[in-house]
Every structure is written in structure tokens, then in C-alpha cells.
Specification:
Protein name: O-antigen/teichoic acid export membrane protein
Main location: membrane
Largest sheet: none
InterPro entries: Poly_Biosynth_Transport, Polysacc_synth
Membrane topology: Multi-pass membrane protein
Shape: globular
Number of helices: 16
Keywords: Cell membrane, Membrane, Transmembrane, Transmembrane helix
Length: 469
């Protein structure tokens, strides 16, 4: 007999309380046990949410330990290098890590198995080759411009390039798993396994007598990244082979790149926008200031992960229903706004209550970032009030206009950082980032309304139908 939250409440709670809770509990039952696509998307988001909670806790603990071991200066160097590698690794996918969700859904729905087998193989090979070339160019660039780079960054950046092919491949494998609703296979390697292994490798290195420097931390990250990605590759490939029968492959690389490149621009602008403040602080300020700001951003990630969890769970369903009934798409899109806002608001309040002691755990001076949290949390919660608009636009074929919105947002963010950091320091970065997030949310929700006729704003219940521009 299957568990039912609604039936359990009806049986064990007083009648009036059970009646009040019944609508909510029926929705819980629908998410947990429904076999339709809405239930599948809900379960994917719940799993993603749970994984991101665990991963946020692991990441926070690991970053605290790394900061304690390394000190703020070396930790700041490692932070700037690792954030840069994560960004470049994702960009090295050229959009395939997101477009593959759309391709797999489309080809499976239409029975285009030759194209499906082709994109599964070509996406991985293309990303491995492209990221390897970019890593080689990066190493050459570090060597060529070594005279203009601060000496303490040269070796860590050179070593960091070794990670790029595996970081890019991991992103594509995550997209492939998301397209199949394999939540654990998509999220656990990146958000749990890899940070745990980085911490373990660093602990082993320190115990073995190696100096706890940025170079040591990057070496630990290289080992952890390769081990995690190779295991993920074997696992996802085996599951994919069982699901897709063997047969001929149709390679349409030109067409796939045509679709992927605008998505690449969206993802590029998004990643740069998400991390521009850390990079700009690193450009203008010393590594110890980078460390303080990054610790603040890591604490803020406890709020951010709600948005990313919902985004991970709903993208494949957006792709499946984007060209169907507009009422179904609009209803589901509006529902996802609630999925992002209320948990984000709750986590934001919690982070503000606990932020100062949490930052103090990183070491002396890190609590200086606590006042910044009030501004940054407010901006993140404001953005969550419009839901995952960029996923809706991308999966509905409006990736070009989405890229334009992100380009404008990134330009605003960088411009404000350049203007404000030299005079206001870390406050300048926080103000620039917050303003950019609010602009992004406003522009994306307006674009969804104009292109799809869907009002992706939590407190505006109206909807109108427009002709697609």
C-alpha cells in the first residue's frame, strides 16, 4: 500500500486541521507519486532541491576548512582561479550542455533515433576536443603574458587549465542526465562528489606535509575533477546505452551548433553575470579581499540554490510542452514561480539570521562581509519572484532574445563594477551585482510576457495572450 500524506493527515490529525492541510498535502502526493510530466518535473526539482541543500552544506564546510588551512591570501588566489576554471569549463561546452536537453526530448518524441544516437556521441566528442584546445590556448596565454600577471597567480592558473576538459564534459553529462530525468546522476557528481573529493584530497595533501597553498588546492581539485567525471561518464553512458537501442548515427553538427550557439551566449552571459563580481573584485583588489567577498557569496549560495534546483527540474518539461497547448505551458510556468519564490524567501531570512556567525567560521576578518548579505539576499529573493524565465525562453526557441537580455545585464554589471569598486570596494561589487540581478529579472519577465503572453511575476495573477513576436 502506497504512502499518502493526505490520507495520513486525515487519519491522525483532528478534522479541522486535516481539512486545512488537505489541499497542500494533495499537492505533495501529486508531486511524489504522479506519473505524468508535471509530477516528474516536480520530483526532479525536489531531488535537485535536496541535493543542493546537501551540496550547499558540503561546499560551505569545505570552503571554511580550506580558508582555515590556507589563510585568506592563498585562499583568495585559489578562489579566483577555481571560479575562472568553472566559468571557462562551462563555456567550453558551447551551449551543448543545455541544448542537448532540447534535442533529446525532441528526437525521442518524434522517434528520430538516428539523430538521437548522433547527438549523444557528437556532443561529448565535440566538447572534449573544444575544451582541450581552449585549455592549450589558456596555458599558452598564461605563459605569453606572465610578465603582466601577478606572480602568485601564474602557477595556479596554469595548473587550473588541466581541469577544463573534465569540467566541460561533466556539464554535458549533467545535461544528458537531466534530459532523462536522472536527477541523482545529473547533480550528485558535480555538487556532492566533487567538492567532497576536493576536500579529502586537500586533507591528505596537508597531512602528508605539503604546504596548504593555492597550488596544492588546485592539484587536489584536478584529481577530484578527473575521478568524478570519469565515473560519471561510465555511469551515464551505460544507462544511455540501455535506453537507446544500437543503430546508425546521423551527425548534424552544423544544425546542432546553430541551435547551441545562441544558448551558448545565454549561458556565457549568465555564468559571467553570476561570477562577474568575484572576478572584478579579483581584478581590482588583493586576494584577501577576494576571499572575504567569496565567503559572503558562498553564504548567499544557500539562497541561490533554490532557484537552480527548480531550474534543473523544469527545463526538460518546458522543452516537451513548449510547442503544445499555450494554456498548459502558461499554467506550469506560473506554478514554477511559486516553487522558486517562497523557499528562497525562507532561506533568505535564515541566512540573514545566521550570516554573521557563519562568516566568522571562515576565520578572522571574514565577518566583514556580513552587511553585504542584506543587499544581496534582497536581490536574490526579488529575482526568484519571476521564476526560471531564461529556461522557459530557451526551451521555447527564444534563446536569441534571451541572450540579448543577458548581454545587456552583463554590460550593466561590469560597468557598475568598474565604476563602483574603486571607490566603494566590496560594497561597490554588492551594489553592482544587486542592481544587475533586479534588471535581469525585470527584463526576462517582460520578455516572457511579450513573447509568450505569460506573466512570470508571483504577485500579478493576470495573463494575456499575444502573438509571438
Amino acid at each position: 500500500m502506497r504512502f499518502s500524506a493526505a490520507m495520513t493527515a486525515e487519519k491522525w490529525l483532528p478534522g479541522q486541521i486535516a481539512a486545512r492541510l488537505a489541499p497542500l498535502l494533495r499537492r505533495v502526493d501529486a508531486v511524489l507519486f504522479s506519473t505524468d510530466e508535471r509530477g516528474e518535473a516536480g520530483r526532479m526539482s525536489l531531488v535537485a532541491f535536496a541535493v543542493r541543500i546537501v551540496s550547499a552544506a558540503i561546499a560551505f564546510v569545505s570552503q571554511v576548512l580550506l580558508a582555515r588551512w590556507m589563510g585568506s591570501f592563498e585562499y583568495g588566489i585559489f578562489v579566483l582561479v577555481w571560479v575562472s576554471m568553472i566559468i571557462v569549463g562551462s563555456l567550453s561546452c558551447f551551449g551543448f550542455h543545455t541544448s542537448i536537453i532540447r534535442f533529446i526530448s525532441e528526437y525521442r518524441e518524434k522517434g528520430m533515433l538516428d539523430d538521437l544516437r548522433g547527438v549523444l556521441v557528437a556532443s561529448r566528442l565535440f566538447v572534449i576536443i573544444a575544451s582541450t584546445v581552449i585549455a592549450a590556448l589558456g596555458m599558452a596565454g598564461v605563459w605569453a603574458f606572465s610578465g603582466r600577471i601577478e606572480s602568485y597567480y601564474i602557477v595556479p592558473f596554469f595548473l587550473g587549465m588541466i581541469c577544463l576538459p573534465m569540467l566541460a564534459l561533466s556539464d554535458v553529462l549533467q545535461g544528458l542526465a537531466r534530459a532523462n530525468s536522472w536527477a541523482f546522476a545529473a547533480l550528485v557528481p558535480t555538487y556532492i562528489t566533487r567538492p567532497v573529493l576536493i576536500l579529502v584530497c586537500m586533507a591528505i595533501a596537508v597531512a602528508a606535509g605539503l604546504a596548504p597553498t593555492a597550488e596544492t588546492a588546485v592539484l587536489a581539485s584536478i584529481i577530484a575533477t578527473y575521478v568524478t567525471t570519469i565515473i560519471q561518464l561510465i555511469s551515464v553512458t551505460q544507462r544511455t546505452d540501455r535506453r537507446v537501442p544500437a543503430g546508425p548515427r546521423n551527425i548534424r553538427l552544423g544544425y546542432w551548433l546553430k541551435i547551441s550557439l545562441p544558448i551558448f551566449l545565454v549561458e556565457s552571459f549568465f555564468f559571467l553575470l553570476t561570477n562577474a563580481d568575484v572576478l572584478m573584485v579579483g581584478f581590482y583588489m588583493e586576494p584577501d579581499k577576494v576571499a572575504v567577498y567569496f565567503a559572503t557569496v558562498k553564504t548567499l549560495a544557500l539562497v541561490h540554490f533554490v532557484y537552480f534546483a527548480v531550474k534543473a527540474g523544469v527545463a526538460q518539461r518546458y522543452a516537451r510542452i513548449a510547442h503544445g497547448e499555450s494554456e498548459e505551458l502558461g499554467g506550469f510556468a506560473r506554478e514554477t514561480v511559486s516553487w522558486t519564490f517562497w523557499p528562497s524567501l525562507a532561506m533568505g531570512v535564515l541566512v540573514l539570521l545566521l550570516g554573521e556567525p557563519l562568516l566568522g567560521m571562515f576565520g578572522p576578518g571574514f565577518a566583514d562581509g556580513y552587511p553585504l548579505l542584506f543587499l544581496l539576499v534582497a536581490a536574490v529573493v526579488a529575482r526568484s519572484a519571476v521564476g526560471p524565465c531564461e529556461s522557459l525562453l530557451t526551451m521555447s526557441g527564444y534563446q536569441n532574445v534571451c541572450a540579448m537580455v543577458y548581454a545587456a545585464t552583463l554590460a550593466l554589471n561590469i560597468g557598475l563594477n568598474v565604476l563602483l569598486i574603486p571607490t566603494l570596494g566590496l560594497w561597490g561589487a554588492a551594489i553592482a551585482t544587486s542592481a544587475a540581478m533586479i534588471f535581469e529579472a525585470t527584463a526576462l519577465s517582460f520578455t516572457v510576457w511579450r513573447k509568450l503572453g505569460i506573466v512570470m511575476v508571483l504577485f500579478i495573477p493576470t495573463k494575456r495572450t499575444v502573438e509571438n513576436a
